[in-house]
């Protein structure tokens, strides 16, 4: 099957950006009073004293000086580009400015964010500034949480939620303006939102406005994508930031971060510290080490609820120290705080724990926040004077040749490095310690590589087809995905039955798209009734969506493994996840204690319950029989039915155990060292040591011949491995898809022979 790209600049010739037809009810910009009126125009109630205090702060923001210019530009142009430097106030103020223009923009002003924490925290702030209740005139909409009503004028939401709304209303008629914030991050959802809104401009020329905002926007590219759109530039409220580089590369940037924070605290005057690391594991490792370094005053505040802090890892060697590049230390000991609060910040953290980073702490206390790139632009933490930047971020990558998804630390862009530096200069002169050399920085890319060019796009293609895009190859992407990536996506959808031979969306594909999960999980859920276990499959889908629920503190590995063993099942990880979910579900009233005692992540399991309830509700709406084989009294589940359901969704992700080479020693061989080969691509992979299948193999001294897995992972030089797998029978493969009977699609001769033997035995 060949997928051809048929557009050059599809739709661009139909767009006329300047000048725009005027919206009805034209009147002077800023017609809603914000300072001197006795009544709040949004509530018709008197302004509070708190409003007047916040108004003074707002008026000092750089973006406030451009208020009338922004309002007039948006009024007279369908599209406006706004580049606002760090600290300019664009995220909180621009939607507020536009909401003031009620006669011109009578509908909702939406502001999209790439992350839920940003949508919630910014909405909370803007509600306070507008002197309204959160959920009334200002609201937010994120997965599993929505606070809005018919009176809502400003709505902060994730990009993904706007896309879900487009399912029901492709013209987004409730919105007068959509502000796409943080456009520089170039997530898949952001790029798809931009493409949909670009098309929408042709259909709602007089009633809709688009504003694209960023701190580090690739202006030339976006202006080419949205020709004729005027550019408004807002300077930031920045103080000087001294940048310190390492004299040579650090061997371990987590250890170097801990060492650097200790030195900053001991040497520098008051001011909070913001550290950037790549993910949860690194952050918790650093937080734990800092707890030990600073003593009980730090550990008491933010110790993880589900695990006992381990002893600190060895600190970084002398090389990455501030003496190499920094100015002399402060001699004013009285100005240096004595207490320290250490706080993690990452996406899977509970909302309550995330909000701790915004809290004010007593005088004499220094706040240290260890964060992913979520704190780069999405949220602003007041009081930060010092930044420690590891120079990396986690990126999802897709190898189209090997068809492998993996998540690896990748160097950040120069634009991201500048954003991180800018966090140190919002309130006074600051310092940014970069844990890389100046030569390393020079080699960084200028901008972040768009996610759509480096990830599997099967879910994106399914989404576009569902939204009525007849040929996703013609969709106006900012950066079109590769032809190979598009072909891979259509092949998988064709195998799934989501598209027909003409690549048109089928009814089954439309039902798949109605489920807000990965395409493999959606197919698993819709095929599970064939095995009378849709409710059981929903549990597995919820656990895979929620993320890793197991906590493995380094100093308590033996205890954690013993606790996790109670959930293991020889049939595989998917069954183990099912058992874990129900064990937690039974103890939900005391969930935090249950997780603490069993080394589990409470927040992850709470999310899993939310996803499960959502999926059950959606399956009911789709008239899918939601049956279960689970018997709580005996803790019984039909593992055959459950694994067959998993296979229905992940049949393209099956691996075969390669035989031991002739003459190779068998006595004493570790079974987990055996190599599997994937059926689809003949890739050599091994089981991760944390897989339940690997643990069972250690006891049983044997591995299953065939396994189904949810994804492959690549870890540095350790090769490609499988973390979540379950045993399946070869006969099931022949039943689930013609993929296993059409042996021309199987590249490995040995695997093809095994499948052929299985076919012959069934005759």
UniProtKB/TrEMBL annotation:
Where in this chain does the record put each Helicase C-terminal domain?
252-468
Q: Which reaction does it catalyse?
A: ATP + H2O = ADP + phosphate + H(+)
Q: Which Gene3D superfamilies match?
A: 1.20.120.1080, P-loop containing nucleotide triphosphate hydrolases
What's the superkingdom here?
Answer: Eukaryota
What EC number(s) has UniProt assigned to this enzyme? 3.6.4.13
Region (Disordered) residue ranges read 302-332
Q: Which Pfam families match?
A: DEAD, HA2_C, Helicase_C, OB_NTP_bind, WHD_HA2
- InterPro entries listed in its UniProt record: DEAD-box_helicase_OB_fold, DEAD/DEAH_box_helicase_dom, DNA/RNA_helicase_DEAH_CS, HA2_WH, Helicase-assoc_dom, Helicase_ATP-bd, Helicase_C-like, P-loop_NTPase
Q: Where is the signal peptide?
A: none
Per UniProt, the ranges with Pro residues bias are: 307-320
Q: Where is the composition biased (Low complexity)?
A: 321-332
Every copy of the Helicase ATP-binding domain together lies at 71-235
A GO molecular function assigned to this protein is: hydrolase activity
- A GO biological process this protein is involved in? RNA splicing
Keyword Hydrolase in record: yes
PANTHER family for the chain: ATP-DEPENDENT RNA HELICASE, ATP-DEPENDENT RNA HELICASE DHX15 HOMOLOG
Query: What is the name of this protein?
Result: RNA helicase
